[in-house]
Amino acid sequence: MRRATGKRAGPALRRRAPLAIVALLLLLAVRGASGQEALDPSAPPEATEPVAAPEAQRARPAGAPARGVLLVPDGLLRRWDPLTLFFPRPTGPADGGPEDTPERFVRLAPAHPGAWSWLDATTLQFAPADPWPPLERFTVSAAGETFRLTSLLEAPRASHPAAGAVGLPPVEEISLTFADPVPAEALARALVIEIRPLPGFGDAPSRFLTRQDFEIKARERAARAEPSTYVVALRRPIPTGHRIFVRVRTRLDDPPERAVAEIAFSTAEPFRALRFGCRREQLPVVPGGARYSAEQALVCEDAGPALVVDFSALPAALGVVEAKNLVRVSPAVDGLEARLSGRRLELTGEFARETAYRVTLVPTPIEDQEGRPLDLAAVNELVLAFPRAPSYLRA
Questions:
Q1: Number of Cβ atoms within 10 Å of the Cβ of 317
Q2: Do residues 156 and 248 make contact, with C-beta atoms less than 8 angstroms apart?
Q3: pLDDT-derived band of residue 224, with 50, 70 and 90 as boundaries?
Q4: Entry pTM
Q5: Pick from 178, 199, 197: nearest CA to 248
Q6: Cα distance between residue 151 and residue 178, in whole Å
């Protein structure tokens, strides 16, 4: 039998060649973008995983320095944050496990209940058994490094008065409820209490309470798991006519504008005389007193002359005697009578024409229908005149 020559075998090889090329291309495609061998589904995972990086490098956070011990978190502690130490070289057991003598490697001050354990040979972690107490400072010392941390204060769960409350009587105390106990003195430093006259917005002048303006008392808890409530007892009540802003800072070093919570509420608008004068024109009443000059004299109506006082609320029964005690007129007016029309007091009488009358509003013990006394600490005074009625007769 004659052997096949190269020429005769060539066509068969050429027929098989495209299949081989296709198989090779498929193999390359499977290796593809990852540049790895195709995974054999029957192979165990250990045989197909990429080679792991050294344990210390794999455990340390990305971007951390390669040398020295590292603590996470570094600076701020939330309620249940664990503490994780990354050592630059293997220090604990390779398989991890609890650490019964952590003082050999790390020191936490002040002490806090919890447990230390190794996650791997280079990673030591502390899991707190209780939440970190708010506004406390801690230090962690390990491998010659010292880290300082501050525990954050979470927003209060509730308050009294509640946020958005309006029309309140004078405020004598403010209560705040937190999830966990807070050191009273630290809470006092974390509070920012601002008071503005109503309406409390814009350029209204404001004042801030100082540490001498209040004291903080903790209410007793029936059970350890209950929230903690603290009463901010004000040495002087916040009177009516004010808006109060209570801001709670998350850290003692934070400025007020970075508060974790803001609670705003308002006391009731006080019972005040708002304006006084005549029907045609009035001037504002200033609770602390005001004397308007003759250059600000009011030119009033020429028909049905009357003095008026507008109040912020409905006055209680206001007779002629109370009205004359509140509104003094010079020179005297004969036949002076008083009448309430809603929130307006009107005094009518025999007013002379083209006569300058000095009208004085005097602090008087009158009340509104809710029993609130009139908020008027000093006199307000103005000058007005009633012109002659125009003549309709023509020459």
A1: 9
A2: yes
A3: confident
A4: 0.61
A5: 178
A6: 14
- CA–CA dist 262, 240 (Å, integer): 20
CA distances from 336 to 18, 272, 278, 333, 347 (A): 122, 23, 14, 6, 6
- 124 contacts 87 by C-beta, under 8 angstroms: yes
Concatenated DSSP letters for 52-98?
PPPHHHHHSPTT--SSS-EEES-SEE-TTPPEEEE-SS--S-TT-EE
CB within 8 A of 222, min separation 6: which ones?
none
Rounded-to-integer distance, Cα 303 and Cα 280, Å: 10
Residue 334 CB contacts under 8 Å (≥ 6 apart), including other chains? 349, 350
Maximal CA-CA distance, the chain: 159
CA of residue 294 relative to chain centroid, distance: 48
| pLDDT > 90? residue 266 | yes
> What residue type is 221 in one-letter code?
R
User: Is the pLDDT score of 136 beyond 60?
Assistant: yes
Q: Where on the phi/psi map is residue 371: left (φ > 0), alpha (ψ -120 to 50), or beta? A: left
For residues 77 and 80, give the distance between their C-alpha atoms in angstroms, rounded to a whole number.
8
Determine contact, residues 346/339, Cβ cutoff 8 Å: yes
Residue 299 CA to residue 281 CA, distance in Å, equals 8
Q: Which of 33-42, 131-140, 269-278, 303-312 has the lowest mean pLDDT?
A: 33-42
Q: Which two tokens stand for residue 118?
A: 């190794």
Q: What share of the chain is helix, strand, coil (3-state, %, to 5)?
A: 15, 35, 50
Pairing between strand 298-299 and 380-385? parallel
Please provide the distance, in angstroms rounded to a whole number, between the alpha carbons at the two ends of the chain. Answer: 159
How many Cβ atoms sit within 10 Å of the Cβ of residue 323?
22
Looking at the chain, the number of H-run helices and the number of E-run strands are 5, 27
Instruction: Assess whether the previous peptide bond of 161 is cis (omega < 30° from 0).
Output: yes
Helix ranges restricted to H, 202-360: 320-326
* Close Cβ partners of 141 (under 8 Å, ≥ 6 residues apart): 106, 107, 109, 147
Q: Coil, strand or helix: which one is 195?
A: strand
